Amino acid sequence: MTTLPILIHPDPRLKARAAPVAEVTDDLRRLAEDMLQTMYEAPGIGLAAPQVGQMIRLLVMDCVKEEDAAPKPMVLFNPRVVGASEEVRTYEEGCLSIPDQYADVERPAEVDVEWLGLDGETHRDRFDGLWAVCVQHEIDHLDGKLFIDYLKPLKRQMITRKMQKLKRERARA
Ligand SMILES: [Zn+2]
């Protein structure tokens, strides 16, 4: 397995819409494995393919937080929200492509999601709690949307300037 470099905002690939996969191939299974490893190492709870420069509709996540609980890695190809609760919930979100920046985002508290699994079969499940936040955040990535797009323009611009500075510093290092 390989750890992949994670793109940092702003980057045109993080603003673009990703393409659905026609079929779950061995190459795509390997990419999903690499993305899981990259996510765990970061560490993070979710990662979408565009964040590693792959413009396909694939995301991985594991929202198990308890230290001694068994990990629950999930791989979703072509995920889509097919239902959402009216109840909303606000959660302070962050993003591996926007390091060290956090902000409150309001989203439906529970969502029904349909996707293709590693087995190539269609799966459907209801997500709640942190899993619901994470799956919606990651599906947004597949549509070129970041959590800062939910914020007021001034706050978004402030975060974007910080990231531009971070990228300049990293490029110089
Ligand atoms: Zn993110």
From TrEMBL:
Coiled coil: none annotated. Fe cation binds at residues 95, 137, 141. The active site is at 138. The keyword Cell inner membrane does not apply. Keywords: Hydrolase, Iron, Metal-binding, Protein biosynthesis. Its cofactor is Fe(2+). It comes from the Bacteria. GO terms for biological process: translation. Its EC number is 3.5.1.88. It is an enzyme of class 3 (hydrolase). It catalyses: N-terminal N-formyl-L-methionyl-[peptide] + H2O = N-terminal L-methionyl-[peptide] + formate. Pfam families: Pep_deformylase. GO terms for molecular function: metal ion binding; peptide deformylase activity. Binds 1 Fe(2+) ion. Removes the formyl group from the N-terminal Met of newly synthesized proteins. Requires at least a dipeptide for an efficient rate of reaction. N-terminal L-methionine is a prerequisite for activity but the enzyme has broad specificity at other positions. HAMAP family: Pep_deformylase. Belongs to the polypeptide deformylase family. This is Peptide deformylase. It comes from Wenxinia saemankumensis.
